[in-house]
Specification:
Elements (H helix, E strand, L loop, with lengths): L4 E9 L1 H8 L3 H7 L4 E8 L2 E8 L2 E8 L3 E5 L5 E5 L1 E3 L3 E6 L2 E8 L2 E8 L2 E9 L1
Antiparallel strand pairs: 1-2, 1-11, 2-3, 3-4, 5-6, 7-8, 8-9, 9-10, 10-11
Length: about 130
């Protein structure tokens, strides 16, 4: 299944506790929790380009399945990771202690970030 498309954030769970656990300042968390977010994914075979625009902040990462790459995290930190494809619709990576799982199911994109025992879930719909 292709991940390519634009997705608008519909709902999120545990944003505030997860961002606090990552060490983001309260002011930044308050500003970010209600912002509209658009994710754009371009998939070309095993190559991916993810662009997430939240308010005025743009986070962009490119990677190839199974190859080590440097990615920027939510906190702006650069980390080396390898993204793996599980099945045909699930991308999994370990971003320096934060497990990232992005899954496509029809027009729904679900991203779950887990750090320790706290998970942050984002559900977006294709637009």
């Amino acid at each position: 299944m292709s991940f390519t498309g634009k997705y608008e954030l519909q709902s999120q769970e545990n944003f505030v506790p997860f961002m606090k656990a990552l060490g983001l300042p309260d002011e930044q968390i308050e500003k970010g929790k209600d912002l509209k977010s658009i994710s754009e994914i371009v998939q070309d075979g095993n190559k991916f380009k993810f662009t997430v625009t939240t308010g005025s902040k743009v986070l962009q990462n490119e990677f190839t399945i199974g190859e080590e790459t440097e990615m920027e995290t939510l906190t702006g930190q650069k980390v080396k990771t390898t993204v793996h494809l599980e099945g045909k619709n699930k991308l999994v990576a370990d971003l320096k202690g934060v497990k990232s799982v992005t899954e496509i199911n029809g027009d729904t994109l679900t991203s779950t970030l887990t750090s320790g025992d706290i998970s942050y879930k984002r559900i977006s719909k294709r637009i």
